[in-house]
Amino acid sequence: MLPVRAKAKPAGVKPTDVKELIPLMILMVIVYLVLLFWENELDEDVMMSSIEHLHVDYPQSGVPVRYCNHMILQRVIRKPDYTCKQEHVFIHERPQKINSICSSGKEVVCQNRSTVFCLQSKTKFRITVCQLIEGTRYPACRYQISSPSEGFVLVTCDDLGPVQFQGYVQ
Fold this sequence. Notes:
Helix content: 25-40%
Radius of gyration: 28 Å
Strand content: 25-35%
CATH class of the largest domain: Alpha Beta
Number of helices: 5
Structural class: alpha+beta
Shape: elongated
CATH superfamily of the largest domain: Ribonuclease A-like domain
CATH architecture of the largest domain: Roll
């Protein structure tokens, strides 16, 4: 009698098995993209909240026409609900000079919060005040430069320096 050989099942993945994996692979790619964009959104919010990113433009950008519109779009300046801000201020001073407000500024009551104290710069800073003239939803906001071009800057501080721009005084 001849020996009977056992026939082994071929190892590997059958083409029909791969077809069943396609929906799972598509789902994995979608989850990956969602997580990637979610992470970038969180980074954007952190970056957008810094006083330097939102308010400091030193040296002043050389945008001769439509300065406010250009800067607000470039820096994605808007309210959290994607509506246009009524007014936005850019400070044209060195960051070191702005940081010095926290150590040598004059303590005053903040304009928009009576219980919080702000520090006011000792000297007037060069500023550009952008006033909303058209639009309600970002990015369809249109601004124009309004006066003044100088003002005392008000900020709140923590141990590391300025935390939030609170306004200006002429």
